[in-house]
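Thanks for the sequence, V.! I ran Enoyl-CoA hydratase domain-containing protein 3, mitochondrial right away. Repeating your input here for the record:
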Amino acid sequence: MHAPHTAVPTADDAFTRLDNRDGVACLTLARPSSRNSLSERMMAELTTALDQLADDKDVRAIVLAADGPAFSAGHDLKEIQSHRNDSDRGRAYFEDVLRRCATLMTRIVRQPQPVIAAVEGMATAAGCQLVASCDLAVAGADARFCTPGVNIGLFCHTPMVALTRSVGRKHAMEMLLLGDWVKAEEAHRMGLVNRVVPSGEALAGAMDFARQIAAKSRVPVKLGKAAFYTQAEMGLDDAYAYASQVMAENMLARDADEGISAMIGKRQPYWEDR
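Predicted structure:
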């Protein structure tokens, strides 16, 4: 049993909301009027919140949710179009905003705590990328996913990076080339989401995942998440060599000794997170 953690206060005009309780942080996109588009400010607030949570030892899992009928409509296209008349036709701004987006997505992957998306409504373009970047995802039955850039003359190049690391190549290419909507059940079949729950229950489903994770030792979860993404980029022999090294390190942890002893002794383990 972990002690409740005080909610982090946010400004009334903030684009995000953060609430921490019982080892789980719920980070909410709170700009429904813009369909929670990933504007500069939204991405900055999300990245800052994740940076702060990374060092919070009371937070063992993170749920990423959203207010309103849309999870996220992707980049703020009005913000992007406003730079078309820059002297370089917007090139410097486009490159900068895409770097900011990449920073957010890689922050999720490199976050020491697992990040679980709770998706209701639509998740399009960079919003779909956000879901694909999370470690786990739960979708309401009415959720829909799309990478529609090709329909407006703009291939979803950066969402492609997360998508191809989340679903099979043929599925990714279908989404990227056709730009069609993918319903929640199809997204589950493709591997983009882990579970589909009744509409309106995605947050509850994501919290179930998070609470199960929060009940475990931080040591294997942190080591395991980092190792998962590292070995996935390696060849087979290198992956086994790396994973063996990390697992040996994990075996030396106090909690591994405690967990194995508890299993042999048929008792509940007591975690010290070391």
